[in-house]
C-alpha cells in the first residue's frame, strides 16, 4: 500500500487495494487467481509510470512537501560520517530550524549547513516548520567563516518554505542577516555546494544557497515565492496555486533549462520518501563528485566563476524579428 498517498496517486492506491483483496480471496478460498493478479500488477506498474512520467509542477510541489520525505538530518545520517552539531550564533540564540555542524563527506571534512522540518506537531514547533530566524542565518555564517579559516568546503542542504516572517524575526533584522550571507558566501575562499532537497522558498533558501555548484533533487522546487502566495497576489485567490506553479517555472527540469541550478539528482520513482537509502545514495554520490571537481580548481578561479554564475541570473536577450525590407537588402 502507498503510505500517505497524494491526491494524484489515488488511482494507484485503488489498484493496490483491488490486488490485496484478490490475494486475500485467493488464500481464503484456495483458488488460483495468478493470471488476474499478474494483470493487476501490470496495470499498477503502467499506471505508476504514466503518473510519475507526466507530473505537473504542482504535483512536484506536493511531493517536495510530503510529510514522509527525508529531511536534512536523514541525509546527514546516510551521506556523511562523524557528524558534530554546533550551536548558537554567539549573538542571540540557537535556531533549531537550522541544525548545522561539521561532518565528513567521504574523506573530506566539511561544514554542513541545513534546514530541518518536523514530522509531527511537537517537532514542527521545535523546528519552526523549517522557517529559520535571523540567528539561524548568523549561525550558518559563523560556521562558514570557521570552515574558511580551516580550509573546509561548505555544503548546504536547503529545505524551507522561507525565512520566518514574524515580529521577532523582523526585530532582529532577518533581511539584513540574509543579505550579509549572500555577500559573504559570494566571497568565501573555499569550495561551496548547495543542494535543494525539498522546498527552496525565497530568500530563506537563497540565504544559504550561494554556491559554486547548485544541485536539486528531482522532485524538489526552488522559487522566489510559494505557488499559494503567488496565486493570492495575481488572482487574489489561493485556489490558483497549480496555475501559479506552472507559471513560476520552479521545477528542477525548468530550473536546469534556465541555468538556475547545475544538476538534477534522481529520486526513486514516486519521490524520495519511497526509498530513503536510494535517494541518499544518489545525493551523496552527486555531492562527492561535484566536490572533487571543485577541489581541482584554484580558489581564485572558483571565486571568479561563482561571481559570473550569479551575475548572469536573470539576464535574457530577446531576438530581433527580421523585417521584410531588411531581409530583401
Structure in a nutshell:
The protein has 329 residues and is an alpha/beta fold. It has 15 helices and eight strands.
Which regions are unreliable across 5 or more consecutive residues at pLDDT < 50? 322-329
CATH superfamily of the largest domain: 2-enoyl-CoA Hydratase, Chain A, domain 1
Globally, the shape reads: globular
CATH topology of the largest domain: 2-enoyl-CoA Hydratase, Chain A, domain 1
- Number of helical elements: 15
Structural class: alpha/beta
CATH class of the largest domain: Alpha Beta
Helix content: 40-55%
Q: What fraction of residues sit in β-strands?
A: 5-15%
What is the radius of gyration computed over CA atoms, rounded to a whole number of angstroms? Answer: 23 Å
Shape-level CATH architecture of the largest domain:
Alpha-Beta Complex
For the residues shown, what is the average pLDDT?
A: 89
Throw out a few tags for this protein.
2 domains; 50% helix; 329 residues; 15 helices; alpha/beta; globular; 2-enoyl-CoA Hydratase, Chain A, domain 1; disordered C terminus; single chain; 8-stranded mixed beta sheet
Describe the structure.
By secondary structure, the chain is α/β, with parallel strands linked by helices. The chain has two domains: 11-54, no CATH class; 67-311, Alpha-Beta Complex (2-enoyl-CoA Hydratase, Chain A, domain 1), CATH 3.90.226. Helix content is 50%, strand content 14%. The chain is built from 15 helices and eight strands. Helix 9 links the parallel strand 5 and strand 6. The protein is globular and about 65 Å long. It starts with 9 loop residues before the first helix and ends with a helix.
